[in-house]
Design brief:
This protein is an alpha/beta fold. It contains 16 helices and 15 strands. The chain folds into 2 domains: 19-167, NAD(P)-binding Rossmann-like Domain (Rossmann fold, 3-Layer(aba) Sandwich); 201-498, Dihydrodipicolinate Reductase, domain 2 (2-Layer Sandwich), CATH 3.30.360.10. 35% of the residues lie in helices and 20% in strands. Strand 12 (390-396) and strand 13 (400-408) form a beta hairpin. The N and C termini lie far apart (50 Å). The structure holds NADPH dihydro-nicotinamide-adenine-dinucleotide phosphate and the ligand O=C1O[C@H](COP(=O)(O)O)[C@@H](O)[C@H](O)[C@H]1O. Residues 198, 236, 255-256, 365 line the site of the ligand O=C1O[C@H](COP(=O)(O)O)[C@@H](O)[C@H](O)[C@H]1O. Keywords: Carbohydrate metabolism, Glucose metabolism, NADP, Oxidoreductase.
Length: 521
Amino acid sequence: MSNRESMLVPEATECDYLPDVLTIFVVGASGDLAKKKTYPSLFDLHRHGFLISDKTIICGYARSPKSDEDFRDQLMPYLKDGTEEEKKEFLDLCIYRKGAYDSTDDVASVFEELKEKEAELGEGGKVNRLFYFAIPPTVFVPIGKSIKEAVIDRAGESVGWSRLIVEKPFGKDSESFQELSSDMKALYSEDYIYRIDHYLGKEMVQNLLILRFSNAIFEPLWNRNHVKSVTITFKENFGTKGRGGYFDSYGIIRDVIQNHLLQVMSLVAMEPPVKVTGEGSANYIRDEKVKVLNCIDPVKLEDCVLGQYLAAPDGSEVAYTEDDTVPDDSVTPTFATIVLWIKNPRWDGVPFIIKAGKALNERKADIRVQFKNAPGSGNLFDGQTITENELVMRLQPDEAVYIKTNVKKPGLATKPIMSELDLSYKERYDVELFDAYTRLILEVIRGRQATFVRDDELKASWDIFTPLLHQIDDGKVNPILYEYGSRGPPESDQLTERVGYHYHGGNYTWEKNETIGEQEI
Ligand SMILES: NC(=O)C1=CN([C@@H]2O[C@H](COP(=O)(O)OP(=O)(O)OC[C@H]3O[C@@H](n4cnc5c(N)ncnc54)[C@H](OP(=O)(O)O)[C@@H]3O)[C@@H](O)[C@H]2O)C=CC1
Ligand SMILES: O=C1O[C@H](COP(=O)(O)O)[C@@H](O)[C@H](O)[C@H]1O
């Protein structure tokens, strides 16, 4: 058995749902998300043995008419990696039915057919049902109501669990979130609902709690006495790429900061939960995330820099406002650096810097914990440069954890240089890292809610950003313009420096698998 297989198999054997029939009902199956993420992830689960052909029904549901064959042809180009035979076997499981989202009758009539299939496959055994909402939030409640009346309320004794996966955006501010949340709560209790934030499914984000709490070396340092700043960065080297219509009414804060990056930050900053894995851990973890979010004051304008991208200097890329789907006078930010302050005994005074932008110089996401300088090091080393240690966890591309550390430059001189303790995943592990969606759908099937966002977490996160978002929506803040392909507005570096982040600049170069410099005597 290869290393790759050995890392997969124990997971498959943990799946106690496998003997039951599983019906997956994908609402919005004709849409972009379903094609690009939901179905490819279901395919991944199927070809790795997490979904069993003669126990699984996958039914797509949306308003447009389509035959099963047409639907399968549309999915085919999005299925990557597997063999043609694996693709065919998976697509044979996928059927498509048309219906309205607000029609209990339409959903009921599809389920009449599905119940027959379930009975055929189940041979009297148990049936579980997963409903995936790959739809805009405006239709969460209508389809939620139709499913409840047509399926959940009429579930017979053979039905085991029913679970709902819902996708962001969960509102646009505190008020719209509350409205959506109370409408959904009137239909479903919290244990039915799995709110996806795909950043929680990324390998390195899943690694955070293990790294923090299973190593004796980190937790004693993880506080205001030793940490100087924490930076969470998200950069994309492309613009809104035709998604300007959606993006313009959201902006970068609603698009990635209020959700993905704040989720990552709450895992970095929270107190240890009662349990990280096993029985009860989902609520223990989420309790701690909410607590830390509730210690953050709403963002003040002076703690943020907003930007919007211009065209590329060589003319190869157009400015944000030149996108046909964006109004010419839009002031929607495509870049933001925001400093958050956690008012609790662990973090009081430590800046948590969240930086996110589109059309920048590179694509990357990372977490950077910068530690304070070693006490007395200036004197000990005769004024030679000693730089602050940094623990960096790179989420993408190329997952890595490295600690920037001062060591003696190899050779005869006694000169400190910055080097790294380096764990690069590609070099260390021969294992397929699954897409975040694949991982998260499997977690839903296993009934593990820890990596899904609870209602009260969302409330707390909207409360942090809502006053700022309203100022932006009211046109009270003009973003600073930056060139496509740059690092964003220079004011961002000025802000991070002002709050205490120290950029090491030319003191450090990473030279993969190469020797460092000339030997000094
Ligand atoms: N295992 C591995 O794969 C390892 C890879 N490396 C690589 O080595 C390189 C250097 O690593 P590292 O030192 O961690 O990261 P960088 O030097 O790229 O950046 C460090 C931080 O400084 C910021 N920054 C960059 N330029 C400026 C500036 N002019 N003023 C203020 N802030 C600035 C960056 O912000 P911003 O992102 O916004 O530009 C980033 O947050 C990277 O490419 C890294 O991937 C290093 C160690 C191990
Ligand atoms: O949710 C979103 O995330 C993507 C970035 O996801 P990643 O996994 O590729 O980092 C972002 O491009 C998009 O604008 C946003 O809506």
